[in-house]
Amino acid sequence: MTKRKKRFIDWLRMALTVSLTVLLVSIHFAARKEQSATVCTDEDLSAERIWPADTACCSLPFAIDSLCVATDGAQSLAPFFAALDSLRAGKDTVISIVHLGDSHIQAGHYSGRIMRLLHEQFGSAGRGWLSPHKLGRSNEPDDYMIASSAKGWIAGRCIQRVQKCPIGPGGIGLQTASPVVNLDLTITPRNGAGYSFNQAVLYRSSTSMPLLPAGVNKQQVHLFRAQSAVVPGLLTDTFRIDYRTDSLQLHSTRRKAGTDSLLPSTAFTNRYYGFSLTNGQPGILYHSVAVNGAMFVNYTDEAYVRQLALLKPSLLIISLGTNETFGRRFSAVEFSGQIRAFLTLVKREMPHTALMLTTPPECYKRIYVRKKRTYVRNENIQCAARAITELAARDGIACWDLFTATGGVNSCKKWYAAQLMARDRVHFSKEGYQEQGVLLYRALMRLKEKKMSLPNEAY
Question: What is the Cα–Cα distance from 353 to 1, expressed in whole angstroms?
């Protein structure tokens, strides 16, 4: 055998070996992908197409798709689902949803995901509630900005034992002693795409300086100033715009109504609470209301719940429970009592609002062993989730068990390993929160389809 022929045979063997290796690796990963993919059945993809195209067969890492369902034994959501059907049928109406929560909600990725999915399916009536978190030196969703050149803002929050200033429907309030106040509202071009508005309602204290339209297009912004408080101490001024826009500039005035005389700046205590944006179209108006660190007890205040009721929700989704579990002496019995106390107030102030409780997802807690920081599962989360689901079943309240849907016990290890949790091992990444938003949307739509397909007595 010649050397040239031998080299050719060796090269051929090597090529065959490489090809075979590549083929085996491809088969291995294809099998894993098929194994982990979410299977979409004909039941999932109903004739009404309840899944938008980008969620119908999306991967939900470590989630148990078969457990991604909500419960509603008392049919408390039936009127809400009927309203959704009428909206889809072409009725010119707006359905308001409020999603109340803590830091899992304040970032806006979780609630923002389900908001966009509902808007895609049922139409958008606008961006809804906006809290000025950044002016209060906190994080806010990335689809809007509220800025001001005024200095010295003091933030009051519902979580403060002694609130630095009164709060509004968003659970926060901002106060400044500045003699001149401006608020510049902007829907961000990329993340806020599609949320232009032609009406903005400003929530402010009755003692604050009124704000007037400013900027080059101020002549096309019409102010309808509130003549009386909607609840004690709270005014709502409406700004209607001749076109849909992504921005609104407002500037304070000290002019006494109907006169040319100016009041001194000391005559005002300037407090502002947030905006609600609408676009004049029928559809869903999804208000995300949340404060970092919030617990049920922080919202259990009659004056606050009356303000929250101003948003007129057809459905109130309550996503709380994580922060309570970090207490040294967490008690499921005490926790259940706190939930029931809050719900009692809500039912009294919002008797026609459907309610849905959600359980918190599993997370870690930080401990120190021999002065070395380490992380362990927060076992109280499971107790809190059980307390929420049991209370919901007893009281006939709709419930979605996020704890179970995301994998239950030890699921936080998998989510963290997949980089779907934040470094603190309590919060989630943007992608992790968006996955949870898809899960909640699926659970809500599956419950709706179940209600439609079964007779009332079997639902």
Answer: 89
